[in-house]
Design a protein that fits this description.
Radius of gyration: 24 Å
Shape: globular
Strand order of the largest sheet: 1-2
Largest sheet: 2 strands, antiparallel
Order of helices and strands: EEHHHHHHHHHHHHHHH
Low-confidence stretches: 1-11, 16-22, 25-30, 230-255, 258-266
Helix content: over 70%
Number of helices: 15
Number of strands: 2
Length: about 425
């Protein structure tokens, strides 16, 4: 085909432009971008989310190190397992009882303000814990109170964070953003516990000093309170299919439901109404039912494997490394979740259930603690993917004004179980 002369400006200057179309790329030669490239593209195009997610991971790292160091320090000072158990219980208790109230708070108060206040309280608690330990106050009381307050702040912050992520990225990037957030959370859990022990070996107050510093970093990196959805996310949601950030989400072009502020009824929806909406969502009910049953059986499996390891005389460091397989598996599952989420969410649920069953069966047949805890790590790969699938589905299905309560109820049923 002959080239065509095209005018390019008002002075008549022009250029030759070929009108022939480029040959189509065969379907077999079209390759999907790798997960690493997708994550890199997400952080480059949505820097606000990248900074927010990274700072949250740093803060979570400090919180996990304190949660690990508290019982160890109580045990070292008092030589009492009961004291160490009290500190552990204080850090775990908020995760059992505070999820639903935290969701209600997050839906009624500006979420970024909630996150900032929780970081301020966490930082002040860490500083006061250092002062209490330095001036020889009752160490167990100081550690229990500090663990309880830090646990409360962590629960509130995590619920607000999960509900805020959809405001920072467009819908087409939700799977990647939630998968990235879940991966950083699992990385913090994986490295936070060893970090707490290492810092405790340096100085008794060092874990709390580091926790105060990580909270300060997160405080400065959080988006300003009261800020509307980022302009980039709004533009790409309006563009729909023209968005330039593919993330492999499942088929269809559904948009996130509009918030309830237009009708004035959704923000004031009572908790019972939110629960009713959640129960009428088939995928959420299926995932939560699977998580409740799986968490119960997995806790039993882990306790049995630890008991077997003790009976066979395995060194404690070997058991610790094997328990770390859970965090490593969660990290791998979260990173790889965008690949599997290219299929409909219902496929993810079926895949997880079908993959969990043979793994648990193998653990029961082998009766080997090393093999069993390694298989538990593989179960964590599947569990992390299921978490990402559930959060992505809920972010696309429920209005933003309900996400706090939906997240709180879901975490209470899945984590609290």
């Amino acid at each position: 085909m002959r080239p065509k002369w095209v005018r390019s400006d008002e002075n008549g200057r022009g250029r030759q432009e070929s009108t022939s179309s480029a040959p189509p790329i065969p379907a077999g030669r079209q390759s999907r971008p790798s997960v690493g490239r997708l994550f890199s593209r997400l952080t480059k195009q949505h820097r606000e989310f990248a900074v927010f997610s990274g700072a949250s991971a740093i803060s979570q790292l400090g919180s996990m190190s304190v949660a690990a160091a508290g019982p160890l320090l109580a045990l070292a000072i008092t030589r009492s397992p009961i004291a160490a158990g009290c500190v552990t219980a204080a850090s775990v208790l908020p995760g059992l009882v505070l999820q639903v109230p935290a969701g209600a708070l997050v839906d009624r108060v500006d979420r970024r303000t909630v996150m900032r206040v929780s970081q301020l309280v966490r930082m002040a608690t860490a500083i006061l814990a250092c002062l209490g330990l330095a001036f020889s106050f009752d160490a167990v009381v100081v550690l229990v109170v500090a663990a309880l307050i830090d646990g409360c702040c962590s629960v509130i912050y995590e619920v607000a964070e999960i509900a805020t992520v959809p405001e920072l990225v467009p819908e087409r990037s939700l799977n990647l953003a939630i998968g990235s957030n879940e991966a950083k959370l699992n990385a913090s859990m994986l490295f936070g516990r060893p970090l707490g022990g290492a810092l405790l070996a340096v100085a008794p107050m060092m874990p709390w000093l580091v926790a105060a510093g990580t909270s300060l970093v997160s405080l400065f990196a959080l988006p300003p309170p009261g800020r509307p959805k980022s302009e980039a996310a709004s533009r790409e949601n309006e563009a729909g299919d023209r968005s330039t950030v593919p993330d492999g989400r499942d088929g269809g072009h559904r948009h996130r439901p509009a918030g309830g502020t237009a009708t004035g009824r959704t923000p004031g929806l009572p908790l019972r109404g939110v629960l009713d909406r959640l129960l009428h969502d088939a995928l959420s009910c299926a995932v939560l039912a699977v998580c409740v049953l799986a968490n119960f059986f997995f806790q039993v499996v882990v306790l049995l494997q630890i008991l077997l390891a003790e009976q066979r005389g395995l060194p404690s460091y070997v058991v610790g490394l094997l328990l770390a397989c859970s965090g490593l598996g969660g990290l791998v599952g979260a990173v790889g979740s965008p690949l599997l989420l290219r299929k409909p969410p219902s496929v993810s649920v079926v895949f997880c259930v079908l993959a969990w069953m043979p793994l648990v069966w193998l653990i029961a047949l082998k009766n080997d603690p090393v093999f069993g805890l390694a298989m538990w790590g593989l179960c964590s790969v599947i569990g992390a993917h299921l978490n990402v699938a559930l959060r992505a589905h809920q972010a696309k299905t429920f209005p933003s004004e309900l996400l706090g309560r939906v997240t709180g109820i879901s975490r209470f049923l899945s984590v609290g179980a």
